[in-house]
Design brief:
Blueprint lengths: L2 E5 L3 H12 L3 E6 L10 E2 L8 E2 L6 H5 L15 E2 L3 E7 L3 E5 L3 H7 L4 H13 L1 H8 L10 H11 L3 H4 L6 H11 L13 H12 L4 E2 L4 H13 L3 E4 L14 E4 L3 H7 L6 H9 L5 E10 L12 E6 L3 H12 L9 E4 L1 H4 L8 E10 L8 H11 L7 E7 L1 H7 L15 H5 L16 E3 L13 H15 L1
Parallel strand pairs: 1-2, 1-10, 2-9, 6-12, 10-16
Antiparallel strand pairs: 3-4, 5-8, 6-7, 11-14, 11-15, 12-13, 13-14
Length: 471
């Protein structure tokens, strides 16, 4: 019987394992940590009874994922929950830009910028279903919908600063800046509009839901599906070299490129080894979890109904802070993402206390403590927030990497989203998943389509592995 070993139990590793098991292959998943899930783990980070997501929190791309959505994970306990407002972006003076699932309602609330929003993010949302297979596929491919993809590509190639230059509305521009900042890159760089367009459009097309009971439920459902197909997961098994994985016909590595180079030392072709060594990682996420009494006292009352909140002020402020993080300087007022998952999923709360999820964009490898900077940004737009805090748990950049080795230097995106690495990730090759070692493939977020809980990097790597077997 053909056998495979997958190293890493994040969504991509588990997706790869499931895809291989669907073809009757005997699959073992090896996870170095005591718990499964990689970036989709959840825990009681602050107080007993409260559920905090450890990394990924909102999952528009999991819903959009052609592979994950085909697996019937609802049979294994996965339930999606949506907030009333998908995303809020507060501004000083008690104002806020709001992203609703309904495009017309969103555009109406953006005033003078509503028409520009509808023409860019809105037009992408209207074609989202036909674009998704291309958006979540390898970058170098023949588009299934070439006309629609070309229209999207023309907008996506623009710097976010250029796309929003003539929007003539502070709220619309700020809302887009916050979404584009999910790419952890400069907003004046080419292609910095891409993530903003995709995630903004997804907010209208499928929403920004949470997994009921925590993001851990996504990994649990994938493991249940794998077990149904005869596969298994072993935790506490760290793979430092090929021999640690044991004998197998296929080896799929859900690891960062430099880790793959260490595991495959002495086996990689020289050019591949050099490419993996040169692979760049982007800014880090400094994670802070709070246990709060009641909700957050946002100055703009509507923000209390939003699942995700972006904090950073105007487009110009966010652009400046992202530039500083990319350059290795700690921003005085970093861009902060806040997750109010409890708004959509009350099961995460207990005894009048709610879990609040947050992280700030900081330089890769940042050695300081950004807890106060995160708290101050929340307090800026929610005066009185400090008085609601009952417990705090912070995870430094070094602790984040120790907890998940794929977060190199605290990078949760799988690599720097520079223009070159957006196109050639993790190296310039027709097959980005192939390592050059027969039967061994890379399937982490460092391969296309990049970061996000969608499992598509794992799926595509598994397809390449299956093609290898057929030769």
């Amino acid at each position: 019987m053909t056998s495979a070993v997958v190293v890493g139990s994040g969504p991509n590793g588990l997706a790869a394992a499931v895809r291989l098991a669907q073809e009757g292959i005997s699959v073992r998943v090896l996870e170095a940590e005591p718990s499964i899930g990689g970036g989709s783990r959840s825990s009681a980070a602050t107080l007993p009874g409260l559920v905090h997501d450890e990394c990924s929190a909102f999952h528009p791309m999991a819903l959009a994922s052609p592979f994950l959505s085909s697996l019937g994970l609802e049979r294994h306990g996965l339930r999606w929950r949506w907030p009333e407002i998908e995303l809020a972006h507060p501004l000083d003076g008690g104002r806020a830009a709001l992203l609703y699932r309904d495009l017309a309602e969103t555009a109406s609330g953006l005033g003078a910028g509503g028409r520009a929003w509808a023409a860019t993010v809105g037009s992408t949302a209207q074609r989202f279903a036909e674009l998704v297979p291309d958006l979540l596929g390898p970058v170098l491919h023949v588009p299934r919908r070439p006309v629609a993809f070309a229209r999207f590509g023309g907008l996506a190639a623009l710097p976010a600063s250029a796309l929003t230059r003539h929007w003539k509305d502070e709220q619309a521009s700020a809302l887009f800046a916050g979404i584009a900042a999910h790419a952890f890159t400069r907003l004046d760089a080419p292609f910095s509009s891409a993530v903003g367009l995709v995630l903004g459009a997804a907010g209208h097309a499928v929403g920004w839901p949470v997994a009921e009971g925590g993001s851990q439920r996504i990994a649990d459902a994938l493991v249940a599906r794998l077990a149904e197909l005869g596969g298994r997961v072993e935790t506490g098994v760290r793979v430092e070299r090929v021999e640690d994985a044991g004998p197998a016909d296929l080896l799929l590595l859900c690891v960062a490129p430099r880790a793959a180079a260490r595991i495959l030392a002495g086996r990689l072709p020289g050019a591949v080894a050099r490419s993996y060594a040169r692979y760049r990682h982007g800014p880090a996420a400094f994670k802070v979890d709070y246990a709060i009494e009641g909700d957050v006292p946002w100055a703009a009352a509507d923000v209390r109904r939003a699942g995700t909140v972006h904090l950073g002020g105007t487009f110009e402020e966010i652009s400046r802070s992202e530039e500083q993080a990319v350059q290795g300087r700690m921003p005085a007022n970093p861009f902060v993402l806040v997750g109010q998952q409890f708004v959509a999923d009350p099961l995460r709360s207990s005894g009048g206390l709610n879990p609040l999820w947050a992280y700030a964009h900081v330089p890769n490898g940042y050695a300081g403590d950004a807890t106060e900077a995160v708290t101050a940004q929340i307090e800026r737009f929610a005066p009185g927030f400090r008085g609601r805090i009952r417990a705090v748990s912070a995870r430094t950049v070094a602790q984040a990497e120790a907890h998940n080795a794929n977060c190199v230097g605290g990078d949760v995106a799988g690599g720097a989203n520079t223009p070159s690495q957006l196109v050639f990730r993790p190296r310039a090759a027709a097959d980005p998943y192939a390592t050059g070692v027969p039967g061994v493939f890379l399937c982490s977020a460092s391969t296309p389509p990049g970061g996000g809980t969608h499992g598509m990097a794992g799926f595509h790597a598994a397809e390449r592995a299956l093609a290898h077997l057929r030769r």
